[in-house]
Amino acid sequence: MNNYSRAIRRVAILGAGVMGAQIAAHFANAGLTVLLFELSAEKGDKNANVKKALAMLSKLKPAPFADSLAVHYIQPANYVEDLPKLRDCDLVIEAISERLDWKHDLYAKVMTHLGERTILATNTSGISIEKLAEGISEAYHSRFCGVHFFNPPRYMHLLELIPHSATDAKMLDLLEGFFTSVLGKGVIRAKDTPGFIGNRIGILSMLAVMHHAERLKLSFDLVDKLTGVGIGRPKSATFRTADVVGLDTFAHVVDSLKQALPNDPWNACFQVPAWARKLIENGDLGQKAGAGVYTKQGRDIHVLQPESMQYRRVQSALDDDVRSILKIRKPDEKLDSLLKSDSPQADFLLSIHMDLFHYAAFHLAGIAHSARDIDLAMRWGYGWTLGPFEMWQAAGWQRICGLLQEHVSQGKAMAGAALPEWVVEDDRKGVHDASGSWSADSKKILPGSSHPVYARQVFPNRILNEPLPASQTVFEDDAVRMWHTGDDIAVLSFKTKMHSVSNEVLDGILQAVQVAEEEFQGLVLWQPEAPFCAGANLLQVITQVSQGDIESVREVVEKFQQASMALRHSSVPTVAAVQGLALGGGCEFILHCDRVVAALESYIGLVEVGVGLIPAGGGCKEMAQRACDDARGGDIFPFLAEYFERIAMGKVAGSASEAREWHYLRSADSVVFNAFELLHVAKAHALAIYESGYSPPKRRENIRVAGRRGIANFTAQLVNMLQGGFISEYDFEIGRHLSRALCGGEVDPNTEVSDEWLLKLEVEGFMTLLKQGKTQQRIQHMLENGKPLRN
Question: Which residues contact 42 (CB under 8 A, 6 or more apart)?
Answer without folding.
Answer: none
